[in-house]
Amino acid sequence: MRPTSPLGIASSLFQGSFASQPLVGASAPGRVNLIGEHTDYNGGPVLPFAIPRRTVVVAGPGDRWQAVSALDGVVTEFEPSAAPEGRWTDYLAGVIRVLHGMRAAPPGGRIAVASRVPVGAGLSSSAALAVAAAKAVSQLARRRLSREALVEVAWHAEHDVVGVQCGRMDQTVVAHALARHALLYETGEDTRRHVPLDLPVLLVETGVSHRLADGGYNRRRAECTAALEACRQGGVDAVSLSAVPESALDALDGRLDPVLFRRLRHVVLETARTRAAALALAARDYPRVGRLLLEGHASIRDDFESSCSEADRLVASAQRHGAWGARLTGAGWGGTVLVLAPVERHAAISRAMAADYRREVGRAPAMWTVRAASGLRSERGWSHV
Ligand code: GLA
Prior knowledge:
Layout: H1 6-18, E1 24-33, E2 45-46, E3 48-61, E4 65-69, E5 75-77, H2 89-101, E6 109-115, H3 125-140, H4 147-162, H5 169-176, E7 181-186, E8 191-196, E9 201-205, H6 216-233, H7 249-252, H8 258-282, H9 286-302, H10 309-320, E10 325-329, E11 336-340, H11 346-361, E12 367-370, E13 377-378
Parallel strand pairs: 4-6
Antiparallel strand pairs: 1-3, 1-13, 2-7, 3-6, 4-5, 7-8, 9-11, 9-12, 10-11
Helix pairs in contact: 2-3, 2-4, 3-4, 3-5, 4-5, 6-8, 8-9, 10-11
The structure holds alpha-D-galactopyranose.
Alpha-D-galactopyranose (GLA) binds near residues 330 and 331.
């Protein structure tokens, strides 16, 4: 029988490609960010949760680095010290290069990957791959790294080697997530708190693929740095953009370049919204969480300008059909809209949203329901698959 779980697929792919059994394995989930967008590299809070779709990485010894993905089944050789080539193996190369610097990876190895996290859907397929690979490859070198250390490895790989100047939200939630909980991660203080989230969430893919490395993301990061500098010149001395007090916004309006002011306003108000959403979630006040999501989406659309018209339509449609709230999740410019709605309304809302989208955009969106899932774990048991 053909395996259907990502672990089964990765293990049989490994055996088929390398004529041996893998020695180690790990898996990590994709994520949805409930709220707190573009705050993680501005010292603010984020409130993501892991989804029950995982990326599995299995590995075994080898004299050079080779990898195969279930996506195409092609065995690729790669050199961890080489410059990124725009291929999926760049993430593996980045991870291994960082691990080499910590003497936590062998000189060579064989890797097989299978994933159920959609790529380019804003659900952090890259962090799932990098964190799972960091765990599997360090195990291959017989090193036991903490979750915190694995987050750092995966983050450095993506940030320094692949070149996306991301914050640490994705790697952190992918490594630390707890089932049926969202994670309130205060990036400025580096603290994490699990907040109960036992409600299923509806995900609607725009079908517009975003590519982080394309530059929009790094441009926003540069604008945020410039906005902080402008605040300081304007007499507001804050450690980070998210620490600029809300009460200073009025005075800064007019003193800052209008684009930089809009980026600032998004980060400051999103910071407040995220903390408010964590409180409302803990109190199971879903209508309030929903209102905060809608405000967050409007802010991404108008102030941070990282939405897209397809996502705006989906959010408006969700609202029209009685959802508590909805917003585009992840870096933006495409990807997935999350919808928070009473469970008994999910079927009716998704039917109505699909009909709207077909009429307005001309295609049916992929939709699915998720519950908050658990993070990184070791995988074994391929001899039984
Ligand atoms: C991407 C990045 C994260 C975060 C989000 C936007 O997912 O990897 O660090 O900045 O975008 O909130």
